[in-house]
Amino acid sequence: MANRQERIIFAFGGILCFTCVMMVAAAMGTRFWVKGTVLCKTGAQLVNATDPELDKFIGNVSYGLFHGQRVKQCGLGGRPFRFSFFPDLLEAIPVNLHISVIYFCCVLILFSSICTAFFMYNAIGNPYETLHGPLGLYLWNFISCLCSCLVMILFAAEVKIHGLSERIANFREVNFLYETYTEQYDRSYWLISFTFLIHAFNILLIRLAGFEFPFQVAKETELGTGASDLMY
């Protein structure tokens, strides 16, 4: 049975993992992953607009993993338009990359949930089996860290390398050409990075509870075996 300090640490780790589950699930449902502005390049060039006049040709765009909103400005006032990635923008976006982001978000929720269950199991029981005990907690938290990293990297690649904001702004646009003017990641994207930090912190919590990192245990075992061989 774990001592009182270990139980408190494991319970705290379980609460943090459950917070990660809720944050990722909430982030997936919002349109606050990216926000930016788009310039109506065609309109600005037609009137040879200068800096003070550019505001009439700058619209807004914000989107998440499933839906978003854009406001087009071409000198005649804003035209708001809500859109969904599925099925509206399937022709415009890198579908495989976008689905990969959603897939790893789901995997992140799954392993964060597993982390929650195993932390609580360690807090109230005596689960010193291989994958139920601290070794399993190291593994599940490491996988969660990896998944959150993949979500951030893949989504950043979709936005920056594939020009997602520009693709959205120009989707089914015939008369005008739009280009990204400003662009930044919004709060839901940063929730994923916060999830990564929480799982990394949980790994430190397990170490704080007095359990060696798996590779340290393996190394010590190998050294002990080598010493025994030398004696014989």
What does this structure look like?
- The two termini are 37 Å apart.
- The protein is α+β, with helices and mostly antiparallel strands and 232 residues long.
- Residues 217-232 have low confidence and may be disordered.
- It has seven helices and five strands; from the N terminus they run αβαβββαααβαα.
- The longest helix is centred in the middle third of the chain and has 30 residues, at 95-124.
- Helices cover 59% and strands 15% of the residues.
- The protein has a five-stranded antiparallel β-sheet.
- The protein has helices spanning 4-28, 41-46, 95-124, 134-161, 164-170, 187-208, 214-231, and strands at 34-40, 58-63, 67-73, 78-84, 178-185.
- α1 packs antiparallel against α3 (95-124), α1 packs antiparallel against α6 and α4 runs antiparallel to α6.
Topology record:
Blueprint: H1 4-28, E1 34-40, H2 41-46, E2 58-63, E3 67-73, E4 78-84, H3 95-124, H4 134-161, H5 164-170, E5 178-185, H6 187-208, H7 214-231
Antiparallel strand pairs: 1-2, 1-5, 2-3, 3-4
Helix pairs in contact: 1-3, 1-6, 3-4, 4-6
Summarize the structure.
The chain has 232 residues and is an alpha+beta fold. 59% of the residues lie in helices and 15% in strands.
Return the average pLDDT rounded to an integer. Answer: 84
Please indicate the percent range of residues in DSSP E strands (runs of 2 or more): 15-25%
The biggest beta sheet reads: 5 strands, antiparallel
Radius of gyration: 24 Å
Number of DSSP helices? Answer: 7
Within the largest sheet, what's the order of strands?
Answer: 4-3-2-1-5
Q: Portion of residues in helices?
A: 55-70%
Q: What order do the helices and strands follow?
A: HEHEEEHHHEHH
Stretches where pLDDT is under 50 for at least 5 consecutive residues are 217-232
Strand-pairing-aware structural class: alpha+beta
Distance between the termini: 37 Å
Count of DSSP E strands?
5
* Overall body shape: elongated
